[in-house]
Design goal:
By secondary structure, the protein is mainly β. It has 3 domains: about 35-130, Beta Complex (RNA Polymerase Alpha Subunit, Chain A, domain 2); about 130-220, Beta Complex (RNA Polymerase Alpha Subunit, Chain A, domain 2); about 220-310, RNA Polymerase Alpha Subunit, Chain A, domain 2 (Beta Complex), CATH 2.170.120. The chain contains 5 helices and 21 strands. The strands form 4 sheets. Strands 16-21-19-18-15-17-20 form a 7-stranded mixed β-sheet. Strand 18 and strand 19 form a beta hairpin. The protein starts with a helix and ends in an 11-residue tail after the last strand.
Length: about 325
Amino acid sequence: MSRPILDRLLADWPAKVLSIAGAVALFFFYQLNKLEERPLSVPLVVVAHEDFVPASSYPRTVRLVLRGETNAIYAVLEDDLEATLDLRGYTSAGVWRVPVRVEKRGSALGIDPLEISVDPSDVALSIEARVVKEIQVVPSFRGYLEPGYELAGFSIAPSRIEVSGPASVMEGIVDVSTEPIELTGRAEDFTARVRIVSRDPLVEYLFSDLVEFSATVQQALIYRSYQDIPVSYSGLQEGLEVTTPPPLGSARVAASSSELESFVPAPGALDVDLSGVAEPGVYTLAVVPRFPEGFDVSSWLPMALTLTVQERTAEPVGDEEP
């Protein structure tokens, strides 16, 4: 290269270098301005230590902003970005500020340029010792059975479950309830699988949050009292008779409304069994209620009678002549 040309190229070289640098900067600035932003929310996953767990509330989702070329960032699937709080390195109770880490995978890999910002970038978290204990499962109901029916009994399997959580929370938990079990319109036994209600997000069910509920449904019982029921004697051997007049008794029974609607105690509803009496004498015997099947006798009076039994007197055959 001739000297004059070289001199011209090197003349004012600082200004020329600055011009080239400015041009390059303008180019990259232009390229950066062409990048788009895409906001999205993803679940915040907590990776806890085996012996220490979160003891305070924390955000369940975080906001990510992806910055890159339009086609690239909108091709990223939400499942291919995972935000985590890794607590495995925290091995003592206390309040810690834990950074939120974002991991790329799948469709998010290999994209360049791709900037990811996260809000919040870290979370202040209380950490306590993990406690495991077994607690009772209690049912929760909604609605009413068909008119005239009642819940006679129920069972839950399993009736107790194991849960874990921070010590301060577990201290106040003695039982858990199921989701509402629908009773409306039911008039017979039934079985249903129901979930256990999550009372506190810091508490974890160790095995399953499903239980099986089984119910026994029966017609509702109505209680009614009956008075002036004649007490009867039965089973007395031939040749003997009771000289004690049978008294009037009373009974309180329970049955369905349909069974009680037109029921009247029949003779023998209150009975004294004399089949064990073999000879004359004074006996105290139990009064036994004998109501139809489906009637539940809750109380009756008298419950026992003292009777005098003697030999039967022969009746005269006819008039005797003087």
